[in-house]
Design brief:
heterodimer; A: alpha+beta; Gyrase A, domain 2; Cyclophilin; 2 domains; about 20% helix; elongated; B: mainly beta; nine-stranded antiparallel beta sheet; seven-stranded mixed β-barrel; 18 strands
């Protein structure tokens, strides 16, 4: 799992892994990110992580050349991923998930089966993107993979839980969205007033737990509980 | 110090006006976009004229209509698009650097060329900052400028001082169609026919353009599948599954799943930010020296 470094401009490049996203790859990515932050933070303007890349923006071309020379000889062991699992309540009812019925129908599943499939796995948090506080999760059962809608919705309510392609995610705020909405979560996913504006970190896991509409209406907690630390 | 702040009252504020600076770093790990001035070149020049740091916060405008009244002496600059502007209803011939007296009313009229205008003020507008930046972004800053009449704060200068020579803002740099770009991370996935098309074609700016991205009219046939979601930046050029080219701009999300075919230089981004709907552009590709 030794990455290549692709130069993209004199001050910009990417660590490239040519595998599919897995826990193992994430362990390597987090190890490289930690290494870069402890050894190159003064030379770096910004690091961004995706499923199979880490993009690095350097303050000047020399910084990038120095990194390039070092990274060639680097063999980092993967970082051990967190064991924390966050319990995320979701109301899977058609009033809260407008595409629940159509998705179940297209998959030839009952609502119960769809909910069971969606709530079974522990989903691994890889990174945040698209919107502030939007989790990129790995672990959606292949049975639930569904192509994105051809016409996106202009407005998806905050907390909407959705499926798009091979991914599932939660809209942290109102936004346009092209994924299939299957439920809604009463928690807060982004709060710029908090010292850390999101409550979870890459490497941790989340588990969806079904709740009723009545429970959703009366939900008082802004943040989830840990199922495991 | 706060009791000495000057007040600028926004009497009319066109849609699309926001506070912007050089943008924020360090938020990508939470999914927070860079934001910042769309045309960094003009923004920097405007600040340079006022001897401001680039952390100084300016007003970015994309449409005519601003009316703003200042209550104390200050120096301001209006740089970026070439516009009709007036002070107390008298047209200003060269608005790049203006001495303001208490009570002066500034009005921004027609945009003659370009699409983004920066109103900078000596010392910058005094706004709330997040991760070191005063750039507006929904869910991070309160929708500040959109509710008006709005009072903006600034640091007045103690007494009128000479502005010296009047610098002349040239707009010719953004008028040619060439936009400089590097090959993007996923360029090699394109066929040579697609690469050639992107190299040689003239594209036109579509009306589907905002601070998140600027779409181009012409399609490039794209048989590629979506890729694993990976980092994108302001200046990343994406090719969608439908063959649309989208140039991501300052408020774009930090990751995306479409092939990243090009990456505009910062000057290329500034130039594109000044283009209008229907303007032609051509990508001028630069070589990256490999290590």
């Amino acid at each position: 799992m030794i990455p290549n470094y692709q130069l993209l401009s004199p001050t910009f490049g990417e660590l490239v892994w040519d595998q599919l996203p897995t826990d193992e790859l994430l362990g390597f990515q987090l190890a490289y990110l930690t290494y870069i932050q402890s050894n190159f933070s003064d030379a770096l303007t910004e690091a961004r992580q995706g499923f199979t890349r880490i993009s690095l923006v350097w303050k000047n071309p020399n910084n990038q050349q120095e990194f390039l020379a070092q990274v060639k000889n680097l063999q980092l062991p993967p970082m051990e991923l967190s064991h924390a699992i966050w319990q995320v309540p979701v109301c899977y009812e058609p009033d809260y998930g407008q595409d629940l019925n159509s998705l179940a129908e297209s998959k030839n599943l009952s609502l119960k089966e769809l909910i069971q499939l969606h709530t079974e796995p522990n989903y691994r948090i890889h990174f945040f993107g698209f919107l502030p506080g939007f989790f990129y999760l790995n672990g959606l059962p292949p049975m639930l993979h569904a192509p994105r809608k051809s016409v996106p919705l202009l407005s998806v309510p905050p907390g909407s839980v959705a499926i798009g392609g091979a991914q599932t995610g939660i809209y942290p705020m109102q936004s346009p969205g092209g994924w299939h909405i299957i439920g809604r979560c009463p928690l807060t996913f982004f709060d710029s007033k908090q010292p850390s504006p999101v409550w979870a970190k890459p490497g941790e896991q989340i588990k969806f737990v079904p709740i009723s509409a009545a429970q959703f209406q009366n939900w008082n907690e802004l943040y989830p509980k840990l199922l495991r630390k | 110090m706060s009791q000495h702040l000057g007040k600028a009252v926004v009497l009319r504020c066109p849609a699309g006006t926001s506070f912007q600076d050089e943008g924020r770093h360090g938020g990508a790990k939470y999914g927070i976009p860079s934001s910042g001035a769309m045309d960094q070149r003009s923004f920097r020049w405007a600040n340079h004229l006022l001897k401001n740091f680039n952390t100084a916060v300016a007003l970015e405008m994309a449409q005519p209509g601003l009316r703003i009244q200042f209550d104390q002496i200050c120096h301001i600059s209006l740089v970026g698009a070439k516009v009709m502007a007036s002070l107390n209803q008298t047209p200003i011939t060269n608005p790049s650097l203006i001495a303001i007296a208490g009570g002066d009313l500034l009005e921004v009229g027609k945009f003659l060329s370009g699409s983004r205008l920066y109103l900078c003020i000596q010392g910058g507008f005094q706004v709330e900052r997040y991760l070191g930046s005063g750039s507006d972004f929904e869910s991070i800053t309160s929708p500040s400028i959109r509710s008006y009449p709005k009072v903006l704060s600034y640091i007045p200068i103690p007494q009128p001082s000479s502005l010296g020579a009047k610098p002349k803002w040239e707009t010719s740099w953004f008028e040619s169609p060439e936009i400089e770009a590097y090959h993007g991370a996923d360029w090699a996935l394109l066929s040579s026919a697609q690469q050639k098309l992107i190299h040689s074609s003239i594209f036109h700016v579509s009306k589907f353009s905002n601070r998140m991205g600027i779409q181009l009219e012409e399609l490039v046939p794209n048989p590629l599948e979506d890729l694993p979601t990976n980092p994108v930046f302001p200046g990343t050029v994406q090719l969608t599954s439908g063959g649309k080219i989208i140039v991501l701009m300052r408020d774009a999300g930090v990751t995306g799943g479409y092939p990243r075919i090009l990456h505009l230089t910062e000057d290329g981004q500034s130039k594109l930010a000044q283009k209008r709907v229907g303007d032609p552009i051509r990508f001028q590709l630069l070589e990256t020296i490999t290590g």
